[in-house]
Predict the structure.
Amino acid sequence: CYYFQKADLALQMKDWTEAARLGDLALTLPEKEQGQKEWLVYIEAYLRTSQWSKAFILSRRAHKEKPMLTDMICGVWERANPDFTSDSEKAQTAQQLLNELGCARD
């Protein structure tokens, strides 16, 4: 998908805001035009732009619709937010999702 390719490039350039904006646009497309694996890019963009509720909702959706992505979803949350303790609300949201998906946390 056009939006995915652009968002992936934006992530590589660390342009989190642009990647999140493109995610918003891509997620308005009919579902058949979206790839669940592409959602990983948008989840990371949402996390890196502090759009936690969008990241949380999309992560749950991706896990439900494509359970084989669970390890990758966990990895995105771990990579984008190595220290969940800096903000108690964010830490609680992250921990809730990590527990729900069965992500291992050290």
Notes: The mean pLDDT is 86. Helices lie at 2-12, 16-26, 39-48, 52-65, 70-80, 88-101. The two ends are 36 Å apart (CA to CA).
